[in-house]
Design a protein that fits this description.
single chain; 141 residues; alpha/beta; Transcription Regulator spoIIAA; five-stranded mixed β-sheet; two-stranded parallel sheet; globular
Length: 141
């Protein structure tokens, strides 16, 4: 267990825009269970550590491949739903350019429906930026 008073090192591809209260994740390479677990652990540490809620944006356009299975995504999404229960609503936008990534994000979105985690997929930066109420430039690399 990670101490709550110690900031955890950010996983590769993760940044945080404090002014806009937005965590941005840009995975590269092969998106697999290890990468998901690292980002979820970091995310949960930050949710516990920070006083205010924050939205999330994930840009899947730089991934080379997806090496996940549906059961794993279902378990992670259910875990996230339970972990975040009782907290203020947050938005989690996914910029998706491949059907493989879209498949797993749809599972995540369905499992977290009717929870404080509002998950949406986007094929355009403009729509994601509008939903998150940030300038498009913030979402672009």
């Amino acid at each position: 267990m990670i101490s709550q008073d110690k900031e955890m090192q950010r996983p590769p591809g993760v940044s945080f825009d404090e002014e806009r209260r937005l965590m941005i994740f840009r995975p590269r390479g092969i998106f697999d269970a290890k990468m998901v677990a690292e980002v979820v652990q970091f995310l949960e540490n930050e949710e516990d550590r920070l006083d205010q809620p924050f939205n999330r944006f994930t840009d899947t356009s730089k991934m080379d491949a997806v090496d996940l299975d549906e059961r794993f995504i279902y378990r992670i999404a259910l875990h996230r739903r339970r972990f975040y229960d009782g907290r203020p609503p947050v938005k989690s936008a996914f910029y998706v350019t491949s059907s493989a990534a879209g498949h797993y994000i749809r599972i995540h979105a369905v499992v977290t429906e009717h929870s404080p985690l509002k998950v949406k997929m986007f094929r355009e930066f403009d729509n994601a930026a509008e939903w998150l109420d940030v300038p498009r430039s913030v979402l672009e690399e």
